[in-house]
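Structure first, sequence second, as always.
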């Protein structure tokens, strides 16, 4: 701030010195005295340039640090938010906020503050210098400012509204681009390239329309402000000329006055851009604030229990869960409509898993198995008393401890753009090669016949694009096994391998689990028939439970699914 004040004070001194030089010249000053004035102006200009550089380094450097801190805050907050938050906000929208909106906030905190503060200092110091010369001419110069403020006021509100709509349109556009890039194979397989291009064009056109409206509104402000500067020039010449002729002011003072008007024109014209920048930055800050103010719905809280001696007994008691309830904490933050109410994903579910046992969850797609498994990791908002670990409410434990105690293999496996070995080591980066090979073999990865050119060092590509679906799932399984957690949760984790391979892998896990609790969800009966207890899910409820032989012997959903799958298997064997 002090550098900005010094910069503008030195700048304002130049017209005053120049005016004094003009008066001295008109009064017959010798060449030596005029030269001294010239040297003084040069010295002031050099000092002003140095102080301006310092002020820009400080302000713009601060804006870069603000950008750095803001991105860190956003990333840390996003890492804390529940998965239900990501159901309310698309990935493209979040990426737009993390990049474009942060950039606008940086511009607000850097160039915006710099030029706005500079403009205010120019007005204050310039007014003070002009009053010292002639208060009458100062009033004339400032007279057009109320008109300018009135004209700009209405335009500023339009710019802010258009800027917010433009940011939202850009988020929609980024979402389309992200989905089309991530799902390029699906788009091509359905021959829908043209349809997706039209979808992109629609979002792009919407973004263009809002951007043009914003540009037109911003473009109106600069001529308005420039008009005020031109009127000030005309007024000074109209009134100052006769005053100089009458001797009320000197020629040098009039020259200095014209110089001050020239110095004030640029900040005045730039004021339109500054106000636009402030409106766009404010709109972006509002969008970022929605993320920063989003409630953390899954947390440990004070006095969280530790899982240092967990036996991994799991008890679920009358557990009812509805995704709509979880989304209520976030839908009010969205710019669009609230989410539609959803039916319960789980209804009064109760079960018990003893430590060291192999338990299976079976049911049709959408029956609630995945929701229950996510609940064990607190990836959804579990109500108090619904799930207990070793007799204590799961909400009373530290969240990180719970997730470290559970190795989870989701049905939608995700691999990073790295080698097979690096993906397996994701949860245990210090594991040695022998251990990595051992868990890979346990997960059913045959390095001699999998077609992996460089073995475990084979690059998997983006999201595992270089691997088959079955290979991706087995790499994800090996990654979970390397964690050596007391509870292993498999959510249709081997659905892309054949039934015999899935059953062989699960049997191997059961035989070598060494006290580990295994909870596996599967749609295939033959894959989990060796489980010590099988819970049958239907429409969010447990409709039956028992061992395989017991369930297969009595009428019900389990026996019906088994018969259908046996029939499908026999039909596949027909020539």
């Amino acid at each position: 701030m002090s550098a900005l004040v010094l910069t503008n004070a030195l700048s304002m001194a130049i017209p005053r010195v120049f005016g004094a030089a003009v008066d001295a010249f008109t009064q017959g000053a010798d060449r030596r005295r005029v030269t001294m004035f010239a040297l003084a102006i040069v010295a002031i200009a050099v000092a002003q340039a140095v102080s301006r550089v310092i002020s820009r380094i400080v302000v713009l450097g601060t804006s870069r640090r603000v950008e750095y801190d803001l991105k860190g805050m956003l990333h840390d907050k996003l890492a804390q938010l529940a998965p239900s938050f990501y159901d309310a906000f698309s990935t493209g929208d979040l990426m737009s906020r993390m990049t474009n909106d942060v950039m606008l906030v940086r511009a607000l905190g850097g160039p915006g503050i710099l030029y706005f503060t500079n403009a205010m200092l120019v007005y204050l110091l310039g007014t003070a210098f002009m009053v010292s010369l002639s208060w009458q001419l100062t009033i004339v110069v400032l007279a057009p400012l109320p008109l300018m403020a009135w004209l700009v006021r209405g335009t500023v509100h339009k710019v802010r509204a258009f800027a917010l709509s433009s940011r939202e349109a850009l988020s929609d556009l980024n979402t389309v681009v992200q989905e089309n890039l991530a799902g390029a194979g699906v788009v091509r397989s359905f021959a829908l390239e043209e349809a997706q291009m039209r979808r992109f064009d629609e979002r792009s056109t919407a973004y263009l329309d809002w951007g043009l409206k914003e540009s037109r509104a911003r473009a109106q402000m600069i001529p308005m402000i420039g008009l005020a500067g031109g009127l000030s020039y005309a007024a000074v010449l109209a009134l100052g000329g006769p005053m100089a002729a009458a001797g009320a002011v000197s020629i040098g003072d009039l020259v200095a006055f014209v110089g001050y008007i020239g110095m004030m024109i640029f900040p005045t014209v730039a004021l339109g851009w500054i106000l636009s920048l402030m409106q766009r930055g404010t709109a972006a800050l509002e969008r970022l604030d929605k993320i920063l103010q989003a409630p953390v719905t899954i947390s440990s809280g004070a006095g969280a229990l530790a899982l240092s001696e967990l036996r991994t007994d799991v008890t679920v008691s009358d557990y009812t869960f509805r995704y709509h309830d979880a989304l209520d904490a976030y839908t009010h933050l969205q710019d669009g409509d609230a989410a539609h109410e959803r039916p319960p994903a789980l209804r009064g579910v109760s079960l018990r898993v003893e430590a060291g046992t192999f338990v299976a969850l079976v049911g049709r797609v959408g029956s609630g198995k995945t929701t229950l498994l996510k609940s064990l990791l607190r990836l959804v908002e579990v109500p108090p008393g619904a799930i207990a670990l070793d007799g204590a409410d799961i909400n009373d434990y530290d969240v990180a401890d719970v997730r470290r105690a559970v190795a989870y293999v989701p049905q939608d496996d995700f691999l990073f753009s790295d080698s097979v070995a690096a993906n397996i080591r994701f949860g245990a980066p210090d594991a040695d090669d022998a251990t990595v090979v051992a868990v890979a073999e346990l997960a059913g990865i045959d390095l001699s016949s999998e077609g992996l050119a460089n073995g475990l060092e084979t690059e998997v590509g983006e999201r595992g694009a270089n691997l088959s679906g079955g290979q991706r799932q087995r790499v994800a399984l090996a990654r979970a096994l390397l964690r050596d957690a007391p509870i292993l949760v498999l959510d249709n984790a081997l659905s892309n391998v054949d039934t015999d391979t899935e059953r062989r892998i699960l049997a191997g896990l059961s035989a070598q689990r060494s006290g580990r609790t295994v909870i596996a969800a599967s749609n295939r009966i033959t894959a989990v028939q060796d489980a010590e207890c099988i819970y049958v899910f239907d429409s969010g409820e447990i409709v039956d439970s028992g061992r395989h032989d017991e369930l297969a012997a009595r009428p019900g959903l389990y026996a019906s699914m088994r018969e259908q799958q046996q029939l499908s298997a026999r039909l596949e064997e027909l020539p």
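Margin note: The chain has 19 helices and ten strands.
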